[in-house]
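In this section we walk through a basic example: taking a raw amino acid sequence and producing a predicted 3D structure, encoded as discrete structure tokens. The instruction is simple. Fold the sequence below.
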Amino acid sequence: MTMKRVILQGPDFCALTEDGYLCEYIPDRGQGEETEAILTGRVERIMAGLKSAFVDIGRSRSGFLPLEENSKSFTGGTLKSGDRVIVQIRKEETGQKGAFLSRDLTLAGSTVILMPMNRYIGVSRRITDEEIVKRLRATGEKLSGGRFGLVMRDGARYADESVLREETERLSALWESILRKAESSNCPAVLTEKVSAAERMLRDYRGRGEVLLEKTEELPPQLKQQLDCAGKRKIQTRHGATLVIDPCEAMTVIDVNTSSADFSRDRRANLLETNLEACREAVRQIRLRNISGIIIMDLIDMDEETDRSLVVGALQEAFQEDRTKTVIHGFTRLGLIEMTRKRTSPPLAEQMKER
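The resulting token sequence is shown next.
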């Protein structure tokens, strides 16, 4: 059965629903999102011991820039104090921390991600079929021709090569225009236009199937109720379990309690179903609340390794729908599930306070 995915664009918000459930909510003040913005900055000082630099990007707080990038084929060279540098915001500034920057730039489309500063050719981890991975990697190498790196997104899976080529060339032309603007602009300067939350959401989800964009003045009542629940510490599931979500300084802990769950019949099957349902609801809450960093989940104890594998599989499947990368590290020795979710913007609670 095909999922019905709808993006709701309001006067001061953007929301995503999947089969009628609210999965993302972004307060949008019409200023666009900062994440992925490309800027010119000037290196203020090099922190050799931390292998990083502080960069003046025209804000009250300097950006933090690692000097070493993850890509082995990064072509940026070395930096020294006073250098002018093109950087991209990877994480928005929060609290007392400035924006987290990178020189390994990415220009994202619906089917491909172009990386002008390296030559890596990759395929989305969401694509597991080896034949499709092999085909897409060969296509990426052909489209790149050694000029830039490319990652073939999940949306490339069923796209014609002509569509992939058209988007690749569009992104390549965008990079050339960014370079021209960098040469003619004062430093620091913003080199890319801000993209609205709805536009970015549409771009990220369009490649995964049909997605509708609807304009509305406010959230429907049932979605308002779901949004209100995202501010609560406890969430009740249909099978009687309760999710208790506690953000901490270094991580977020999700505890599954079973005070009203009925395990009087077929205990193992009912316990497993309760945990599976808790996993699905936990993923939705993680996405809706925009929880990131280390996440620890304490489920109802399971004796069978098979059941534990099913739970991990359920989490992985649920996170497949998320556009933000999450890694499931599995069960710890204490029987807790450990996962990490990439941080790109502040949690929903923090964004709501800023409205």
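Looking at the output, two observations stand out. The chain is about 30% helix and 30% strand. The CA atoms of residues 233 and 245 lie 5 Å apart. In the next section we compare this with other chains.
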